[in-house]
Amino acid sequence: MRIDITSVQELGLLIRAARKTQGVRMDDLAGSAGVGPVFVREVERGKDTVQLGRVLRLLDELGLHLRVDLPDDCLAALDKLRREGVKPLPPRRT
After folding, report:
1. Distance spanning both ends of the chain, measured CA to CA
2. In angstroms, rounded to a whole number, what is the distance separating the alpha carbons of residues 47 and 34?
3. What predicted TM-score, i.e. pTM, was given to this entire model?
4. Domain 1-88 in CATH 1.10.260.40
5. Domain ranges of the chain
6. Which tens digit of pLDDT belongs to each residue from 19-32?
7. Which residue intervals define the domain HTH cro/C1-type in the entry (predicted)?
8. Do residues 28 and 34 lie in contact, with contact meaning Cβ atoms separated by under 8 Å?
């Protein structure tokens, strides 16, 4: 089933529902995804500032996939970026 995700809160609820349905404890999911249990709790409660890379690891551990509906007129630009890459960010000053 496809579900439209329009907020961090909805994504957190989806992750929690999948975890509970699979009978996975929060700390077990955290360990297998390489994140801390506090992070899992924050994601499930919809914290706006969670790190996307870590969220993607949680989704992967639960067998979930994140998909984006990309307008057709963006495909050429995406193909070009995939071929050429993007300029790396400059190092941060301390």
Report:
1. 47
2. 19
3. 0.82
4. yes
5. 1-88
6. 999 999 999 999 99
7. 15-70
8. no
